[in-house]
Fold this sequence. Notes:
The chain is α/β, with parallel strands linked by helices. It has helices spanning about 20-35, 35-40, 80-90, 120-130, 160-165, 175-195, 200-205; strands at about 1-5, 45, 50-55, 65-70, 95-100, 110-115, 135-140. It has one domain (about 1-205): Peptidyl-tRNA hydrolase (Rossmann fold). It contains seven helices and seven strands, in the order E-H-H-E-E-E-H-E-E-H-E-H-H-H. Helix 3 packs parallel to helix 4 and helix 6 (about 175-195) packs antiparallel against helix 7 (about 200-205). It is globular.
Amino acid sequence: MRLIVGLGNPGEKFQYTRHNIGFMVVERLVKNKLSLLPSLKAWKKDEKFNCEVCKLPASPSGRDDLLVIKPSTYMNLSGMSVAKMAQFYKINTPDVWVVHDDIDLPLGKIRIRKGGASAGHHGIESIIKYLGSSDFMRFRLGIGKGKLDKPHTADHNLHRHEVEQFVVSPFRDSEGGEVKKIIKNAVEALEIALDKGLEKAMNRFN
């Protein structure tokens, strides 16, 4: 069994913000696996695990059963849900795949890697803390590098409080095409990784 985790913040206020790109991708993944109506009904709120969960059965091609989750805690407590699910279903840490936003990547870029530090991402920090390991897969999705819009400050990184405001801001209308593209490509990366292996996905998208 494999656990795929989309990271984001719960509630309509954050639904289309940069920090919620992980939610958007796993929702699209489920829609691709199921027709529209079943995909909407597939998500079940599970108070025991502090998340919404969708269970997808094994495929005829040999793909393992999948648990796809969206933690219903806020981002900095995401690890609670992940650890509870992994422990209950006896899922090995390398079989935990986390889909999340990355402010250090330009909008539209995807990077897939195993392990490593959190790079300041509070959701990843929480997962490392609660799993007691960093040995899980990350599907890192670029949301823009957090640069200021003003031309004379375009090369300056945002301060910490400005970063926090940036990641919970909605994508701009002008970014709509890139957002659709990265969601499509991230789902494709997951599907290739599931059907053909992580190395194939990494060779394609890294």
